[in-house]
Amino acid sequence: MRQKEFTQEQIDAILKAEKEADNKYVIKRLMVLRLRAVQNMPSKEIGKIVGYPPASVNNILSKYFNNGLESMLGENRKGGNKRYLTQSEENQILQGFESQSEEGKILIVADIKEAYEKTVGKEVPKSTIYRMLKRQGWRKVMPRSKHPKSKPEEFSAYKKNHG
Questions:
Q1: 123 sits in which H/E element
Q2: Any idea where the domains of the chain sit in the sequence?
Q3: Alpha helices (H) in the chain, listed in sequence order
Q4: Which of 109, 83, 79, 81 is nearest to 97 (CA)?
Q5: Beta-carbon neighbour count of residue 119 at 10 Å?
Q6: Nearest Cα to 85, choosing from 138, 132, 139, 134?
Q7: Tell me: the pLDDT tens digits for 49-67?
């Protein structure tokens, strides 16, 4: 496979972008471009310097030649935070349920999920709702459990003799 050549204009743009970059991943991608453009290093050597496997170096170069310098400057996040709503929008959804909780009524996550999905306009997993509740500071509060066959008089008698 033949290497693509960099023009002087491309090299200048890469060097300028590298000076202005502040994200370490962007800097590493730009360093890959600079090492290939200025010093014409092979992918294996660039990978050793930058800490990427040669295949990743080739992917970066290919992405640059197909999509331009702008494709190198983004954060390039594939996963992570895919929230559908802002924190204030989440808070608005929960305000409708807050009055129920203050009255001592049991909140059902399925109801909150339904309201959330109605706002977002698509189906979401239950875990999304539980994470939202945690982010908003909601927690599960339940009375202390008590066995239905427990006898309080026996318990107090035991405490008197053994306490």
A1: none
A2: 8-73, 87-135
A3: 8-20, 24-39, 43-50, 54-67, 70-73, 87-102, 109-120, 126-135, 152-162
A4: 109
A5: 13
A6: 132
A7: 999 999 999 999 999 998 8
What pLDDT is stored for residue 118 in this prediction? 93
Q: Please, are residues 90 and 135 in contact by the beta-carbon 8 Å criterion?
A: yes
What gap in Å lies between CA 26 and CA 10, rounded to an integer?
Answer: 16
The one-letter amino acid code at 50 reads V
What is the pLDDT, as a whole number, of residue 135?
A: 87
Quickly tell me which residue has 């459990």 as its tokens.
145
Asked if 61 contacts 54 with a C-beta cutoff of 8 angstroms, the reply is: no
> 143 or 40, which is more confident?
40
The pLDDT assigned to 77 comes to 54
Q: What is the dihedral of CA 17, 19, 23, 24, to 10 degrees?
A: 110
At 2 the pLDDT is: 63
C-alpha to C-alpha distance for 84 and 81, rounded to whole angstroms: 9
CA-to-CA dists, residue 86 to 63, 75, 89, angstroms: 32, 20, 5
Please name which of 99, 77, 75, 80 lies closest in space to residue 23, comparing C-alpha atoms: 75
Q: Cβ distance 20 to 34 under 8 Å?
A: no
